[in-house]
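Tip: read the tokens left to right.
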């Protein structure tokens, strides 16, 4: 099971508060069967050309 968490950073400026950053995090463990696991997997991906972020959440099966 995979969990994704996100939060924002807010700047307090003279004109009011503005969102300045967004953070997205996830665990990195893949497991299959009862005894096999891999602890260095990537589950959150950001696009370098577009403002998009993709991530795995829940029970994930690869094609």
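Filled-in amino acids:
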């Amino acid at each position: 099971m995979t969990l994704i968490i996100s939060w924002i950073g807010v700047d307090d400026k003279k004109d009011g508060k503005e969102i300045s950053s967004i953070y997205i995090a996830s665990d990195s463990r893949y497991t299959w069967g009862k005894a096999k696991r891999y602890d260095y997997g990537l589950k959150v991906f950001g696009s370098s050309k577009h403002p998009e972020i993709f991530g795995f959440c829940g029970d994930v099966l690869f094609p």
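The mean pLDDT is 85. Strands lie at 4-13, 16-26, 30-32, 36-38, 44-46, 53-55.
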